[in-house]
């Protein structure tokens, strides 16, 4: 079971093309919650790890760095809450807010799109924590919860 889990990890961006993806050399991130400021540090330019948030959940998309990295077509979402941009199919920086976005002005179709994107990210990438609302306290995660979530995703 361990071999299957770690063996699949190497199948990220660039695998099989003779280059090792940055995700292959990074350890699995411990689960924690992020403020918007903390999330912005993981945009792929300051650190090789790339995170983004969808519908209040933060995902490690490092293995998709050819898409979400600084030069990727969706690099605008790296280190940000991508919910509004994904919901509205807009890749303009103006579509992303610099403060917490509660998405309350999105219509039902757009909110359904956000939920569908969230499910796709859950299937493909590691869930690493929640995006905190202003003033919200982070949760404390145990190693047991981390392992349980990791096994559940496989």
From TrEMBL:
GO CC aspect terms: mitochondrial outer membrane; smooth endoplasmic reticulum membrane
The keyword Iron is annotated on this UniProt entry: yes
What range(s) does the Cytochrome b5 heme-binding domain occupy?
34-132
Q: Which SUPFAM superfamilies match?
A: Cytochrome b5-like heme/steroid binding domain
The main place the protein resides is membrane
* Location within or outside the cell: Microsome membrane; Mitochondrion outer membrane; Smooth endoplasmic reticulum membrane
Biased composition (Acidic residues) is annotated at 137-146
Q: Which domain of life is it from?
A: Eukaryota
Annotated region (Disordered), positions in chain? 133-154
Q: According to its UniProt record, which protein family does this protein belong to?
A: Belongs to the cytochrome b5 family. MAPR subfamily.
Task: Please give the subunit comment from the record.
Answer: Homodimer. Forms stable homodimer through hydrophobic heme-heme stacking interactions. Interacts with FECH; the interaction results in decreased FECH activity. Interacts with EGFR, CYP1A1 and CYP3A4; the interactions require PGRMC1 homodimerization. Interacts with TMEM97 and LDLR; the interaction increases LDL internalization.
Function as written in the Swiss-Prot or TrEMBL entry = Component of a progesterone-binding protein complex. Binds progesterone. Has many reported cellular functions (heme homeostasis, interaction with CYPs). Required for the maintenance of uterine histoarchitecture and normal female reproductive lifespan. Intracellular heme chaperone. Regulates heme synthesis via interactions with FECH and acts as a heme donor for at least some hemoproteins. Forms a ternary complex with TMEM97 receptor and low density lipid receptor/LDLR, which increases LDLR-mediated LDL lipoprotein internalization.
Q: What is this protein called?
A: Membrane-associated progesterone receptor component 1
State the organism of origin. Neovison vison (American mink)
